[in-house]
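Structure first, sequence second, as always.
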């Protein structure tokens, strides 16, 4: 996207490629109609990676906390197998 002008305080005139717009809105592999002058697009509906990353990290943290004994057993077992293999 390229800012080509400013119409008012924090109101911008922009140039944006259709493919870039599709990627941002998360419709790159779907159908996005060709836009015409006067059409409106709510950019706020674009994909929010930060929220997804925060959710994924929170879920991962919960998973690790809940399954800590299993994770410790697996890592201990792998460590033991690695030590046996290195001795051979």
């Amino acid at each position: 996207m390229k800012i080509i002008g400013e119409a008012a305080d924090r109101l911008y005139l922009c140039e944006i490629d259709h493919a870039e717009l599709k990627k941002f809105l998360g419709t790159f592999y779907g159908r996005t109609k060709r836009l015409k002058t006067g059409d409106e697009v709510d950019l706020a509906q674009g994909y929010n990676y930060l929220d997804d990353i925060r959710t994924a990290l929170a879920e991962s943290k919960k998973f690790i906390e809940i399954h800590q004994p299993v994770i410790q057993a697996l890592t201990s077992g792998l460590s033991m197998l690695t030590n046996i293999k290195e001795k051979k």
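Margin note: Strands lie at 2-8, 11-15.
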